[in-house]
Amino acid sequence: MAHTKAQKTVRGNRDSQSKRLGVKVFGGSLVEPGYIIIRQRGTKINAGPGTMLSRDFTILALKKGTVKFYTRRGEAFVSVI
C-alpha cells in the first residue's frame, strides 16, 4: 500500500517558473530608448555604447538606433548605433 494517501501533488513534483531570459532584440533590429535588448544573470554580454546595464544585468537601449553585437579581447558586447 502507498505511504501517502491521495493528495493534490506528489512531493517531488515541484519546479520553479522559467525566468524568460535571453536576447529579446537581435542584431540589425531597430530600437527606441528603453527597449530591453537582453535579459541575463551576470554579465555574459557587456553593455557597449548606446546601452545601459541595469541592476539585474538587463541591457537596455539608451538611444534610437540599430543593435550591433561584437567581441573585443574575448568579451562579448552589444551596442546601439
What spatial order of strands do you see in the largest sheet?
1-3-6-5
Write the CATH homologous superfamily.
Answer: RNA polymerase II/Efflux pump adaptor protein, barrel-sandwich hybrid domain
If you consult CATH, what is the topology?
Answer: OB fold (Dihydrolipoamide Acetyltransferase, E2P)
Our estimate of the beta-strand percent is 35-45%
CATH architecture: Beta Barrel
**CATH C-level name:** Mainly Beta
**Morphology call:** elongated
Which ranges are low-confidence, i.e. pLDDT below 50, for 5 or more consecutive residues?
none
Helical residues, percent: under 10%
Number of helices: 0
> Order of SSEs, N→C?
EEEEEEEE
Report what the structure shows.
Helix content is 0%, strand content 37%. It has strands at 22-23, 30-31, 36-39, 46-47, 51-53, 59-61, 65-72, 75-80. The strands form 2 sheets. Strands 1-3-6-5 form a 4-stranded antiparallel beta sheet, with no helix packed on it. A 4-stranded mixed beta sheet has the order 2-7-8-4, with no helix packed on it.
